Each structure stands twice: as C-alpha cells, then as structure tokens.
Automatic annotation (TrEMBL):
Keyword Signal: yes
Key words, A-Z: Signal, TPR repeat
InterPro entries: SecYEG/CpoB_TPR, TPR-like_helical_dom_sf, TPR_rpt
Name of the protein in question: Tetratricopeptide repeat protein
Segment forming the signal sequence: 1-32
PROSITE patterns: TPR (PS50005)
Organism per entry: Roseateles oligotrophus
Residue ranges of TPR repeats: 261-294
All copies of domain Ancillary SecYEG translocon subunit/Cell division coordinator CpoB TPR, residue ranges: 228-328
Length: 344
C-alpha cells in the first residue's frame, strides 16, 4: 500500500488554512474599537452587551437612521452569547441592514466583519475558508471609508499575513498597510510589525517591537498587545525553551492588564513547568477570579494541580466547574471528565 504523498506546497496551504481558523477565532473574541460615541464604546469595551443592546434600541427608536446605534445593536446581538446561533444570526441580519442603510459608514462594515468572524468559528473548515474573501473585502471597505481605523488596518494586516496566497494572503500587502501609517500612526504600525515578525518566526524582533509599544488605555490596542504577548510567551514556554523569558512576559502582562486572567494563568504554567505546584495553584486561583477566565482552561489545570497534591476534594470541585463552563474546549472537557471519573 502506497503512502499518500502531500507536497510541501500543499502542506503549507493546509497549515495556513488551519492558522487562518485560529486567527478567525481571535477576531471573533476581540471586542475591537468601533464607535466614535464614547458611551457606546465604553459599554462594548467593558463587555456590557446587555446594556449596549438596550442603549442601541433606545437610540434607534429615537432615530432609526442612527448608524452607530445600528452597528451597536448588531455587535450586542453577536457578542452577548456567541454560542447562541439565533442571536448570532440576528446580529448578522442587523449588520446587513446597517450596511444597506449606511453603505458609506465604516462602523457598519466593522460590525459586519466582526459578526462574520464570529460566524466563521462555528463553520466547518471548508465553509469558513470560502468566507475569507468576504471577510477581507469587508475589512478593506471599512478601511477605505475610515483610513484612520486601528481595528480595520490591523485586522486586515493579520488576515493578509495568515491566509494562503491563493486565498488573498499577502505579506507585501500587510507591509504596505504598515508603511502607510508609520509616521501618522506609529503605534498602529508597530503592532503590525509585531505580527509580521511573528509570521516570520523572528521572535527576538517580535519581542523588541512588542516591548517598545507605548502604554495604552485603548481597548483594541490592549487586546492586540495581550494576544501577541501570549503568542510569544507560548513560544518561550514550549518544551521549557526559555522559562525566564516566558515568565517575564507573563509578569509584564499581569502588571499592565491586572483585570485580565491571561497573565496570572500564564504565570501558573511557568510555575507548573518548574515543579512549583503551590505557586501554580496560587496563580490559577487568582486567574479564575479575573476577566476572561472562562475562555481559558483554568479550572482544568487547577484540578490537575490539586490532584497532584492529593487534595481530591478541591480537584473534584475544579473539574466540575470546568465541565460546567460552556466556553470550555471540548477536548479539555473530555479529559476533565476522565479525571473526575477516576475520583469516584
């Protein structure tokens, strides 16, 4: 029996497609900057989608032609429960209505792109890949209408860097997006360079650009910094390649974004790799009280850590919490179920 041969070129295409799905997943979870209206932006940035929906509905009743309110309603419907297909579909319909009524308003195209990114997470690989072109064109249109948009420029650059050339990917186009704002928006250009370095696996260059970013209070920039920091830290953490650098990155993230769970969670992984179980547990317990904890396997690792210490009661409680988490990765949930079953 002959072993099927897959050409290196084909392998790279498949790998790129898989990487693209990971990117689309991040696009679906980032509540990027969209609104000029401070109240709407504040509600979205805080993840208060129930309040955002209420505010959008109130504004639309007063003025049906309010483009920002229309986009806000789309995003509120989309993000309030991304696992609810009906609300996600309602968000898509609202985004379409927003674009139809306000074709020259960037905010509508931004809302449409973010809704589509969320939809693509739940699609099969083939269907999601067929939608990459639509996502790209939506970001392009948003950027054409608002060239100063941080979100549109950065997300479009990431898309160019991630998808295969046959699907519209282009490192040169990402570099053009960076060069266009190098003087006018230096921090936007820098975060794009961070992603370019990551795509080229130039980790030292990526770290240098990342650490050179100025402190920011902008939610979208903070999201980009967090995701890039986590990506780089994982490289250093893998196979205990450089635990000191991984620890330094996680410490910086925990210091600069103390309300987010990712920094503390990352530190727990470093301590676990060093065999310091008590410290790992301390940071996991801290992480599970912070924003974004439900998107990380915090309780799964906490269960494993308590089990390693022989504390079966605490391990059982952690596993049960993790299994009940609707956002948990199914593969991790299955592992947690097996561990829980062994506890009896």
């Amino acid at each position: 029996m002959k072993t099927p041969f897959t050409s290196p070129r084909r392998s790279r295409t498949i790998a790129s497609a898989i990487a693209a799905m990971a990117l689309l997943s991040s696009l679906g979870t980032v509540q990027a900057a969209v609104f000029k209206d401070a109240q709407l932006e504040s509600l979205q940035d805080a993840g208060k989608f129930v309040e955002l929906e209420q505010q959008a509905q109130t504004r639309l009743k007063a003025n049906a032609a309010d483009a920002e309110a229309s986009a806000a309603l789309s995003l509120a419907l989309s993000f309030s429960d991304a696992g609810d297909g009906k609300r996600l579909e309602a968000g898509a319909k609202q985004a379409k209505l927003c674009v139809e009524q306000h074709p020259n308003m960037a905010v509508c195209h931004l809302a449409s792109a973010q809704n589509l990114g969320l939809q693509m997470i739940s699609m099969g690989m083939a269907k999601a890949m067929r939608n990459v072109g639509t996502l790209k064109e939506t970001w392009i249109r948003a950027l054409e209408l608002e060239p100063s948009s941080f979100t549109a420029r950065v997300q479009l650059a990431k898309l160019y860097l991630t998808v295969p050339g046959m699907m519209g990917g282009s490192v040169s186009k990402a570099k053009e997006l960076e060069a266009a704002v190098r003087s006018s928006q230096p921090e936007t250009a820098r975060i794009i360079r961070v992603h370019i370095a990551a795509e080229d696996k130039k980790w030292a260059e990526m770290e240098s650009e990342l650490l050179a970013l100025k402190p920011s209070k902008d939610g979208a920039m903070l999201d980009e910094i967090r995701e890039a920091t986590l990506q780089l830290a994982r490289v250093y953490l893998k196979d205990s390649k450089d635990l000191a650098k991984a620890k330094s990155l996680y410490e910086g993230l925990h210091r600069d974004q103390p309300t987010k769970a990712s920094g503390a969670y990352g530190l727990s992984r470093v301590y676990a790799a060093q065999g310091q179980t008590d410290e790992a547990i301390r940071y996991l317990e801290r992480a599970r009280t912070l924003s974004g904890a439900d998107e990380l396997p915090v309780d799964h690792r906490l269960g494993d850590a308590y089990l390693a210490k022989g504390d079966k009661a605490q391990a059982k409680a952690a596993y049960e919490r993790f299994i009940a988490n609707k956002r948990a990765n199914p593969a991790n949930v299955e592992d947690a179920r097996k561990s829980l079953a062994k506890l009896g």
